[in-house]
Amino acid sequence: MSSREERSEEAARQGPVPRTMGQQFGRRSWAEPWRIKMVEPLRVIDREARERALREAGYNTFLLRSDDVYIDLLTDSGTSAMSDRQWAGMMLGDEAYAGSRNFYSLEEAVRKHYGYRHVVPTHQGRGAEHLISTACIQPGQLVPGNMYFTTTRLHQELAGGRFVDVVIDEAHDPESLHPFKGDVDLEKLESLILREGADRIAYFSLAGTVNMSGGQPVSMANVKALRALCDRHGIRLLLDATRMFENAFFIQEREEGYANRSIAEILREFCGYTDGAWMSAKKDNLVNIGGWLAVDDDSLFEDLRNRVVIYEGLHTYGGLAGRDMEAIAVGIEEGIQDDQIRARIGQVRYLGDLLTRWEIPIVQPVGGHAIFLDARRFYPHLDQTLFPSQTLAAEIYLDSGIRSMERGIVSAGRDPETGDHRRPRLELTRLTIPRRVYTQAHMDVVAESVKAVYDARASTRGLRMVYEPKYLRFFQALFEPL
Prior knowledge:
Elements: H1 3-13, H2 47-56, H3 84-90, H4 101-113, E1 118-122, H5 125-136, E2 142-145, H6 150-158, E3 162-165, H7 186-196, E4 204-207, H8 220-233, E5 237-240, H9 244-254, H10 263-272, E6 276-280, E7 291-295, H11 298-311, H12 322-335, H13 338-357, E8 370-374, H14 375-378, H15 388-400, E9 405-407, H16 409-412, E10 428-432, H17 440-455, E11 463-467, E12 478-481
Parallel strand pairs: 2-3, 4-5, 5-6
Antiparallel strand pairs: 1-7, 6-7, 8-10, 9-10, 11-12
Helix pairs in contact: 2-15, 3-12, 4-12, 5-6, 5-11, 9-10, 13-17, 15-17
């Protein structure tokens, strides 16, 4: 069977397909488990205005004004639409400095669905990454994990650690159809431990639905085996739970023995194999701001609770208003429902299916939160130092006003020891779908824009970087066309 036939078979197997294709596949159409109650008008500026806006933003989509964007697929972080119940919860905000009742709502929801004993709120996931890194990493220690994430790795490095990637090789192959490309390569990890010594390992940094690989999940079998390996060597196992609802969906769909288990049950089991988690509540928990850190260990909790007072706020608000904590608590209950996750991933797959049918190169299998365009195959004539992913994001915006983002050599940054560009094997442009925001018609518009840019790919030239900030350069770097 050819790779194209395998991909078509996989797409047919993966669940919700475009509604207009439902009859062709012998399936009933599906619909989102919500209805629209309020709308926000959108506008499209003309191409001349888009050219001017992109030039003023230094060809960096992060620096565009949102008023100049038509469909915003920059990120799913904090861009979800909150429900009527969440907005009602906002009106119940207890803004007491200490002991807000909303903190206890948040604590109860995290304990119920994630299973950890102790909860520390933070202003967003980055605050949690900072706290756990400073509490758990000693200078010179290593932090192995299943592929880096930008802000996580930076916090680990600033704390004196060094991230070591031990994800399976398939994660770096955009065409591989491995069902769990986020899995840890246990042999790589054990070799690292035996070579360096367990005392040099600060903790294992496990990410659910690996973002930089295209939103690829970790299997339950893999986290069980990872838990056993960490136990043998006395290593703490910590989880980035940001998109674990989506990871649980893929386990339910793909892993034997889980088809009849709910997303909530799968999440609770998965988290049970870890010692704690940090969370950007701006994703799965369906809010515009907020995060939390949760652990089981009493002494680690005491350390974190003390640190949060220094950097975020008192341990019962952690940089959040009471109303925001209430919205998170409600968002956890809503976001974990099976029909919500099924519809959320179904919309991502709808877009992915359209692009696959047009033979536009994307990461396969389609992940949980975004479509990742393979810029290497999109622009084979562009060297990686010409920033093909950044170029592709700019071209999509010029074509239609749709904002996406780079996930390639710019995001990878520079090696702190050599100063050279890190050169990831994956050079991707991410179309990230906010939750409960856009319709399938918006996805049609996105697909048609990508196709138009793809059809014009041969004439596209790259970019040069003209300004580079010290940290997380993809946020603020400036470019100009060649």
